[in-house]
Structures are given as C-alpha cells and as structure tokens.
C-alpha cells in the first residue's frame, strides 16, 4: 500500500468534495449519533500551493476520523478579491464549519461575520484577522519567532561578513508575512556589521520581487543577504541574483518548503528555507472545529513551530516529514 494519498482537492480553484469513510447521509456526527455527517468547508489562501495541500491533508485526517465531509475551494490568487466571492458562495451552502486562511486581516472580517451570524462555526488557519474574536479558534505558526529564526540563520550564513540585507515581503495586511518581517527585523538589526535596508512589497508578483532585488543590487554594492517572506519573492530574488551573477555572493533565506523551494536549496540558489508545519495546523484547526461543533472545550489560540532546511540537513527525516506536499500520509 502506498504511504501517501494524493489530495486533488487542493490543486485547483474549483470546488471538490472529499468523500471520507462513513460519511454518507445519516452516517453519524462526530460523537457517533444519528445525525447527518458534519460538512466542513476549507478555504485555503490560494490554489496550487503545496503548503495548503499539507493543511488540507491535516484537515482531512481529522475529518476522516469523525465521519465528516470536506469541501475545499481555493482562490486563484492570494487576494481578498478572489477569496471573498468563494467565501460568500460557501456560506450559501450552509456548512457546519468553515476553516479559512484569510487573505486580508481586515477585508475578510465582514463576510466571516456573516458566516458566524448564520450559525456557521469559523476557524482561522495559517493567517488571522485584526479582530479574530468572531472565530472559534485561530491556528497558525509562530511567524514572528520563525522570522527571528530566519535572521539567525542568515547571520550564520554570513559568518560575520558585513554588508546590507533587504527583505522582500508580499503585501501589507497579511498577518503571517508581516509577523515574519517583524521578527526578522528585530533580530537582524542587532547583528554586528549588518545594515538592514528594511522591507519592500512585491504584491504577490515574481516580476516585482525580481525588480526590487535588481534595484537593491544597483543601489547597494555591499548587498550580502536577502530575506524572502514567501515563495513568489524567493523566485524573483533568485532570478535577479542570477542575472547579476551574484547568486554565489548574496545569501538568500526564504519561507518555501514547496517542491520548487526545496529544489532551490539543492541547486544552491538559496542558503536555507524556514519550514513551517502546515499539516499540524490543519490537524489542530479541524480538531478545534469539531470541538466547537460538539460543544467541547476549544483552544482559542494555537501556534505551531518551524524547522530550518539547508543543504546539510535536507534529507534528515525530521526535516523531510514537514516538507509541503499534496500527498497525504496514509492514515
């Protein structure tokens, strides 16, 4: 038997339903009673991202144990413009719970308030809201701490070398990446010999990230380090450094344990990737959703940790098990 199962639900932006064991109509609720199976809706931050594939695997594993169905719908881009219509469509189907990664900490509040007012349990996963009080629980990585880990990792890579360091961030208002930059900025600013240039936003564009790093190279001949808060930014940064023939002199630390991000480590394009634990996030988010539905105690805030992947430890089992994938471990 294969050790993994492919999760196609996270591969596209259209709707898919995962039929799980014992989830036919009237198959019983999480407590084993005679009610219909719970309907869980999962709305990741973006389609075709293995990070959210791992989140979906975690949600699926818990739903399977509870005889529930999972409907996964993901936006084509990480933006409230794409995500809000999907959320509104999901609300109209009246699921028992919505597990969602909000793409904006402000814009998603009102439609999620509508879901709560309709009696739907809401759990936030990965990202959160400025006012998360409407949610049963918020589950995410400790992104500020992970940003500090990224700074320590980059400082280690520099080995005492002096020079400028820049951050390429996604867009303002994304709680996870904002926290990563904050943690990084606090830690890197205390490293002797490092001139922190601050952050610039790519607005989710590889091309913009490439332009940012190209401009930074031109303006700062002493550039020695790049911190990228997300995969798009890392791809653009690597392209810019290669164009300037500086990929061997400027160290890059990113946040991308998707297959392309791991290949960047193997190719020597980046020094390290900070690896979060999205599978654990999905498990915790689903468990809190079922706790809320069953009237059990709910943990309001849960944070998960991170590991650092480098060329030296990439094949270690403790790192391998957290690499992002659409392939779910067999239950």
Tell me the layout of helices and strands.
Elements lengths: L3 E3 L9 E3 L20 E5 L6 H16 L3 E4 L7 H13 L4 E4 L8 H9 L3 E5 L11 E5 L1 H16 L4 E7 L5 H14 L5 E8 L4 H14 L3 E6 L2 H13 L7 E4 L4 H8 L5 E4 L2 H17 L6 E4 L2 E4 L6 H4 L6 E3 L2
Parallel strand pairs: 3-4, 3-5, 5-6, 6-7, 7-13, 8-9, 8-10, 10-11, 11-12
Antiparallel strand pairs: 1-15, 2-4, 12-14
Helix pairs in contact: 1-9, 2-3, 4-5, 6-7
Question: Please, could you describe this protein's structure?
Answer:
By secondary structure, the protein is of the alpha/beta class. Helix content is about 35%, strand content about 20%. Helix 2 packs parallel to helix 3 and helix 4 crosses helix 5. The termini are close together. The N terminus is likely disordered.
Short descriptors:
Rossmann fold, 6-stranded mixed beta sheet, 331 residues, alpha/beta, 10 helices, 7-stranded mixed beta sheet, 2 domains
How do you describe this structure in short?
The chain is of the alpha/beta class.
């Amino acid at each position: 038997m294969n050790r993994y199962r492919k999760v196609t639900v996270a591969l596209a932006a259209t709707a898919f339903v995962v039929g799980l064991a014992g989830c036919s109509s009237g198959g019983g609720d999480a407590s084993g009673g005679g009610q219909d199976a719970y309907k869980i809706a999962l709305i990741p931050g973006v389609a075709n991202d293995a990070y959210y594939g791992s989140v979906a695997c975690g949600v699926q594993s818990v739903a399977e144990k509870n005889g529930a169905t999972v409907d996964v719908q993901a936006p084509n881009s990480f933006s409230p413009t794409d995500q809000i219509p999907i959320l509104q469509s999901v609300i109209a189907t009246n699921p028992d719970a919505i597990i969602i990664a909000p793409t904006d900490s402000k814009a998603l509040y009102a439609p999620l308030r509508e879901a709560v007012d309709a009696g739907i349990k809401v759990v936030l996963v990965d990202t959160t809201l400025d006012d998360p009080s409407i949610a049963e629980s918020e589950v995410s990585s400790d992104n500020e701490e992970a940003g500090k880990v990224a700074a320590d990792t980059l400082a280690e890579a520099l080995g005492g070398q002096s020079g400028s360091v820049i951050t390429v961030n996604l867009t303002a208002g994304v709680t996870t990446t904002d926290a990563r930059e904050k943690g990084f900025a606090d830690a890197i600013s205390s490293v002797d010999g490092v001139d922190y240039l601050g952050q610039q936003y790519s607005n989710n564009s590889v091309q913009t990230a490439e332009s940012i790093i190209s401009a930074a190279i031109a303006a700062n001949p002493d550039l020695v380090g790049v911190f990228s808060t997300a995969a798009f930014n890392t791809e653009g940064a690597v392209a810019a450094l290669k164009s300037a023939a500086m990929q061997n002199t400027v160290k890059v630390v990113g946040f991308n344990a998707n297959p392309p991000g791991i290949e960047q480590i193997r190719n020597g394009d980046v020094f390290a990737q900070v690896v979060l634990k999205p599978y654990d996030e999905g498990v915790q988010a689903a468990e809190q959703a079922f706790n809320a539905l069953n009237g059990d105690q709910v943990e309001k805030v849960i944070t998960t940790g991170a590991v650092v992947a480098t060329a030296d430890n990439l094949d270690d089992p403790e790192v391998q098990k957290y690499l992002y994938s659409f392939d779910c471990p067999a239950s």
